[in-house]
Amino acid sequence: MVFAPFVFIYVLIFLIGLAFLFALIEIHVINYVFVALGLPPHLAFAALLVSLFGSYLNIPITQVEGGPVHPEPMVQQFGVRYRVPIRYAGGRTTVAINVGGAIVPMAISAYVLLHFPEIIAAAIIGTAIVAFVVHRFARPVPGMGIATPMLIPPIVAAIVGMLLGAATHHADAVAYVSGVMGTLIGADLLNLGRLRELGAPVASIGGAGTFDGIFLTGIVAVLLA
Fold it and tell me: What separation in angstroms does the CA of 37 have from each of 57, 100, 109, 131, 176?
């Protein structure tokens, strides 16, 4: 399932942010941070870029009963406007997993944990903390799914990384894994039972509503050190 979760202006903002990040990489300002995460600098940048464009790709998992389809093509929550994938409306809600907002970040998290097994305990605790905080802020959005404030996941992940990652000297890795997994669990997985009441054609795990927080978590994590 391919659809744009954001209006064009937000994609443009993300691209400008990536261009700035790439410029920092080229002048070797934050190369050491990518190395600390266990990823070669340009591979890390490529992963962030794939995350952005992968936000358009959703892999259907199952379907659940849904309410009446939301009539408006656009919905707004926490100051961000999202497109409702009306063309996929069919009386039921398709639960999907987003490539850029779930699959890619989970793959990077697995990579980081394999390279730094000493952070596993800190990452588990951090994930629980982020999941709890994000769940408290997550809101169901009719027609779209679950949304979270864009800055909550990266801010909480940064704090968790600095507090729990100090002993392992891998605050950035702890922040990334905790932020990504905590957001997916707290915003999406813990709210799956609420999807039936939203009238959303597609509810994407890691997609619109949580993708922006996960994307920013990745950037904040690599800048944390």
Answer: 26, 19, 10, 22, 9
Q: What is the pLDDT of residues 18-27, one digit of tens each?
A: 666 666 555 4
Question: Contact 137/152 with Cβ under 8 angstroms?
Answer: yes
Residue-range domain boundaries for the chain: 8-224
User: Which value, in Å, is the radius of gyration of the alpha carbons in the chain?
Assistant: 17
Please state, in angstroms and rounded to a whole number, the distance separating the CA atoms of residues 144 and 89: 11
The amino acid at residue 171 is: A
Report pLDDT digits (tens) over 119-144: 999 999 999 999 999 999 988 777 67
Asked if 48 contacts 21 with a C-beta cutoff of 8 angstroms, the reply is yes
